Amino acid sequence: MSKRISILGSTGSIGVNALKVASHLKDDLEIVYLSANRNAELLIQQAEEFKPEAVCIVEEASFPNVQNALVGSDIEILLGREGLLELASRNNVDILLNGLVGAPGMEPTLIAIEAGINVALSNKESLVMAGDIIQHAMDKSGAKLFPVDSEHSAIWQCLVGENIDDVRRLILTGSGGPFRTRDINSFDTITVEEALNHPNWDMGRKITIDSATMMNKGLEVIEAYWLFGFTPDRINIVVHPQSIIHSMIELRDGAIKAQMGVPDMKVPIQYALTYPRHLEAPWEQLDFLKCGDLTFEEPDFQRFPCIKLAFDSLEKLGTSGAALNLSNDYSVYRFLNGEIKFTDIPRINESSIAKHDWTEHPTLEDLKELDSWIKNHVESY
Ligand code: MG
After folding, report:
1. Under a CB-based contact definition with an 8 Å cutoff, are residues 69 and 41 in contact?
2. Ligand 1: distance of its center to the CA of 218 in Å?
3. Which H or E run includes 135?
4. What domains does the chain contain, in order, with CATH numbers?
5. Assuming Cys at both sites, which of 32, 127, 173, 203 could form a disulfide with 131, CB separation 3.0 to 4.6 Å?
6. Distance between CA 130 and CA 231 in Å, rounded?
7. How many angstroms separate the alpha carbon of residue 189 from the centre of ligand 1?
8. Coil, strand or helix at 237
9. What is the largest CA-CA distance in the chain?
10. What pTM does this model have?
11. pLDDT for 66-75, tens place per residue?
12. What share of the chain is helix, strand, coil (3-state, %, to 5)?
């Protein structure tokens, strides 16, 4: 029987790849809901191809286009942030894939979990911002999170069949981004174009900058803490520039399990959607005879202070992760707009963690207040 799938953020990088997965697994996956922020043209194409029951367009200006294009079809059209949250709560699906970018993706995760829907989670901010709240909601509804990020998917796959007490530590791999070997004294002059040029992964703009600062890896450490329940001293990072090993676990007896493959987001997306199965797929497979040497390095906290900020925020917990994440969202946005330097990103983030009004068990309301405080803080830098 095919699984009913809801995709939030269907025109973004994760959403587009998920629909590629769905198009080769037409008998296994049925696309029921799609939502896009403002790319009406692509949403319309997707709606015509996959014939979902409903779509949502968040940006109001794009609504008339979608409406005109889909008039006469029996596809329901929802509008705005309200429509998105409504879609997130519809629990007549098996899995909701959250491919939304940034902090606005957090609330839909929570709403879906509360509605008892298993969430294939690509949106990092959900757990980084509100790990505590989401954990609580999961305990209550019984809904589960299926990681989509390549690293967490790798760990998830490595953990299959293992007793969690037998796992000594998690080892997250990271490519090190485009500035792994660049002269550290020239970091001040890094341009947006340089930062957007990632060696291995083809991703959205925000996450590509996060990989250049390695904030991405830091956020993944926080996410791993919430997903797998490992304390920060049992989560390590290894820089692995080839991105062939997607992450590993080390067991008590010294055995290490690694999950490997070509760096292609469709693999972890498909696993999250077809779990616990690994179904046939048409894409390129890893060829050990062609992939060259696999190398490993220690992460450089001086070069990439954002990683350290993430570990620090896990020591403090409470609102620290949310402050770090929000601050990073706004500072990356300012960097992309050419308003601040690359090296300002960690500086601003550090100051946001230090100066915000910390609380231990924030509510959603607290997080919204924090959001506007941080926004101001970052904009006034
Ligand atoms: Mg990742």
Report:
1. no
2. 10
3. helix 125-141
4. 3-147 (3.40.50.720), 152-264+293-317 (no CATH)
5. 127
6. 17
7. 26
8. strand
9. 63
10. 0.94
11. 999 999 999 9
12. 50, 15, 35
